[in-house]
Structure formats: C-alpha cells, structure tokens
Design a protein that fits this description.
Structural class: alpha+beta
Shape: globular
Distance between the termini: 40 Å
Largest sheet: 5 strands, mixed
Number of domains: 1
Mean pLDDT: 89
Number of strands: 7
Strand order of the largest sheet: 1-2-3-5-4
Length: about 140
C-alpha cells in the first residue's frame, strides 16, 4: 500500500483533515490534523495561513484507506475512524465547533457496525462515543424492523 511521507516517516490524514476530505466540514477551514508515529512535534504554521497539527498515534491501529487528494494520493482515516477520533478528542486541532459539525455530518453516513469495529480495535470509548454509537445502533435496528 502506498503511504504519505512526513520527513522519513509515514503519516495519515485524520481528524479535521479527514473530515474535510470526506466533505463533512467546509474546505475553507485552514486547519488539518495528521497522525504521525512520534510525539513532540509542534504544529506547523503554513505560509498561506493554514496550520497542520501533528498528532502522535499508533499508525497500525488506525483504520485508513488510500485516497486521491488535491495533493496526490494519501492515506486518510475512514469515515468511521474519523468520526471516532473527532468524538474522542473534539478539541484536537483547536476547532471544537467544526469537529462537532463534522460529527453530525459523518454520523448519518457511517454504518454503526463500522463504528463499533473501530471502538473495539481501540479498546476504549468516552461517553460521547458510547452515546452516539448506541443511538446509531437503535436507529439502525428500527430501520430494519
């Protein structure tokens, strides 16, 4: 599988950046988050006014797919992984209102089975994730009855 490189390490578009890729928030938002394997990297201010937050994550545990972006091919967290990440840490990237909007937009597009699989892979869920997942599962059961 092809990977995105940040320096000499792999990286995955996640959080706000993945939400923008999945059209869950406006493209005009100038902040993105990228999962990187090592901690201690400060946010990068871009010359044209944007900001890139480098978030330390275990890249092997992220559910990601290879996607074509405006900058070429990149690994992007799946909609279910993106939804999970935004609910677990809505302030990551410094735009909690935009994260909340992305959660609402992604929630209706994500299958509850896919979100449940992400939660199980990570082995933890906060109250927001549990509440949203339970609601999604109730709605799904109601739609299939």
């Amino acid at each position: 599988m092809a990977t995105v490189r940040f320096g000499n390490r792999n990286a995955i578009l996640m959080g706000l950046g993945a939400a923008r890729h999945w059209t869950a928030i406006p493209r005009a938002i100038g902040v993105t988050t990228i999962a990187v394997p090592a901690a201690g990297r400060p946010a990068v201010e871009l010359d044209y006014g944007g900001e890139v937050h480098l978030i330390p994550r275990d890249l092997d545990r992220l559910d990601a797919v290879l996607e074509r972006t405006e900058l070429g091919q990149a690994l992007v967290t799946t909609p279910a992984q993106t939804l999970y990440d935004l609910m677990m840490k809505p302030a990551q990237g410094g735009m909690p209102d935009e994260a909340a909007a992305a959660v609402q937009n992604l929630r209706v597009r994500v299958n509850p089975v896919d979100l449940r699989n992400v939660v199980q892979a990570h082995g933890r869920a906060n109250a927001t994730v549990r509440t949203v997942l339970n609601g999604m599962e109730r709605e799904h059961r109601g739609a299939t009855e």
